[in-house]
Amino acid sequence: MSVPNPQAPVPILIIEDDRDAIVLIRRLLTKAGIDGPISSVRDGEAAITLLQSLAAGTAGVGVDRPRLMFLDLHMPRVNGFGVLKWIQESNAFPDCAVVVMSTSDLASDIEKAYRLGACAYLTKYPEVQHLARIYEEAAQHAEGFLARVHALPFVQRRPMDSWITPEMAPGDASGNPR
Question: Which of 59, 106, 140, 148 is deepest in the core (most CB within 10 A)?
Fold first, then answer.
């Protein structure tokens, strides 16, 4: 896996069924100074269809392969868990960071999202500087993204990881690398 050019914009895909939420997320990204290409789809089924065409190279002109996705969980047709499962099983986007952005703060949702491959879990709506930090990590580092983003203090952790402090991550409780 190659390290991306930090000057190159990171293509973003927003997977969200609420139009107002898409507009708000785009505004937050703009306020964070993120000007890369941003695409959106309004349900999980449309997301999987788009991702399949991107993986096959048939998506057409003007559609960028995302390196960062913001994914809602509760959507019609196919929910966010279904999208995460497809991404995990297809293995077609190993260089893409999937950040769940949901109104749910249920421990079971957080745990399931991480189990299905999410690299971060944020409750709606994160602060501008939090989005900027996640984007910065995605832009500068392809490898180790999960450990660095998971260590950010505003990212929801798995219930079993709640003992990890930002100072300890990405190591274990003794500070040793995982």
Answer: 148
Say if residue 176's pLDDT is above 50. no
Side-by-side strand order, sheet with 12-15:
38-41, 12-15, 68-71, 97-102, 120-123
Closest by Cα among 108, 124, 113 to 79: 113
CATH architecture, domain 12-161: 3-Layer(aba) Sandwich (3.40)
Predicted confidence (pLDDT) per residue in 10-52, tens digit: 899 999 999 999 999 999 999 988 878 999 999 999 999 999 9
Helix 44-56 to helix 80-90 angle (10° resolution) is 20
pLDDT tens digits for range 77-97: 999 999 999 999 999 988 888
Q: Which of 62, 37, 130, 51 is nearest to 90 (CA)?
A: 51
